[in-house]
C-alpha cells in the first residue's frame, strides 16, 4: 500500500490552564483537513478528530482513520509538530 503524506499545515496553540492545547490543520496528500485538536487527557496528550454537531445535538466525528496504523501515523505527526 502506498504511504500517504501527512503534514501539519497550521497550529494555533491555546494559552492558559485548559484541556484544549491547540487547534491543528493537516495536509493529507493534496487535501487540507481542518479542526483537529490537541487535548490533555488523564494519560497525556491525544489528538481529537474534527467533529460536526448533528440535529440531535450530539457531536460526531467528521473524519476518522480506518486502521489503527493510520490513526497512529496521524497522532504521531500532530503531536510531534505540537511539541516542536
Structure description:
The protein has 84 residues and is α+β, with helices and mostly antiparallel strands. The protein has a domain at 1-52. It is 18% helix and 46% strand. The chain has 1 helix and 6 strands, in the order ββββββα. The chain has one helix spanning 68-82, and strands spanning 6-13, 20-28, 31-41, 44-48, 51-53, 59-61. Strands 1-2-3-4 form a 4-stranded antiparallel β-sheet, covered by helices on one side. The protein has a two-stranded antiparallel sheet with strand order 5-6. The longest helix has 15 residues, at 68-82. It is globular, with a radius of gyration of 13 Å. The N and C termini lie far apart (29 Å). The model has no long low-confidence stretch (mean pLDDT 92).
What proportion of the residues is helical, as a percent range? 10-25%
End-to-end span in angstroms?
29 Å
Order of SSEs, N→C? EEEEEEH
Q: In what order do the strands lie side by side in the largest sheet?
A: 1-2-3-4
Question: What average pLDDT do the residues reach?
Answer: 92
Uncertain segments: none
Write out key terms for the chains shown:
46% strand, 84 residues, alpha+beta, two-stranded antiparallel sheet, 18% helix, 6 strands, single chain, 1 helix
How would you summarize this macromolecular structure in one to three sentences?
By secondary structure, this protein is of the alpha+beta class. The protein is 18% helix and 46% strand. The chain has one helix spanning 68-82, and strands spanning 6-13, 20-28, 31-41, 44-48, 51-53, 59-61.
